[in-house]
Amino acid sequence: MTTEPTPRVLVTAAAEATIDLLRDEHGPLMFHQSGGCCDGSSPMCFAAGEFRVGGNDVWLGQIHGCDFFMSASQFEYWKHTQLTVDVTKGRGASFSLEIPLGVRFLIRSRLFTEEEATNMAPVYDGEEYQDRPGA
Fold first, then answer.
1. Which CATH number does the domain housing residue 106 bear?
2. 4 located within any domain
């Protein structure tokens, strides 16, 4: 029996609804979490391709049809946790597309169990993710 790999990133229904609104206005979307300035390590939503990813970024998977990337340095801290993208009321201080809606995306996290950690979904650096299986 083959089991699906443990996903590294998930999304709540509330965040999916916000993504749908943004997709209707901006087209295909992507997420990036850098841990830099502005909102710190908040996930930021961009029109697909608007944020240029490269070898210093890690593709963690897709949420609601959107690629999710994280800077490689952030991934070193977060690689043992499953991330869930959620949304909350309030304005963030970033360039993320949801800000004009009066909400902001945020991350909830939990450590992977030992069992989950044995079957992790693969990650790809930002330069190789387009060549990943199933892309």
1. 2.60.300.12
2. no
The answer to whether the beta carbons of residues 116 and 81 sit under 8 Å apart is no
pTM above 0.85, yes or no: yes
Q: Give residue 2's identity as a one-letter amino acid code.
A: T
What is the rounded distance in angstroms from the CA atom of residue 42 to the CA atom of residue 65? 19
In a domain, 55, yes or no: yes
135, pLDDT greater than 80: no
Would you state the pLDDT for residue 19? 98
pLDDT at 93 over 90: no
Starting at the earlier edge strand, list the strands of the sheet with 103-111: 9-11, 81-89, 103-111
Q: What are phi and psi of 117, to 5 degrees?
A: -65, -20
- What kind and span of H or E run contains 120? none
* DSSP annotation string for 67-118: EEEEEHHHHHHHTTEEEEEEEEES--SS--TTGGGTEEEEEEEEEPPHHHHT
CA distances (Å), origin 82, targets 6, 9, 43, 77: 9, 6, 14, 12
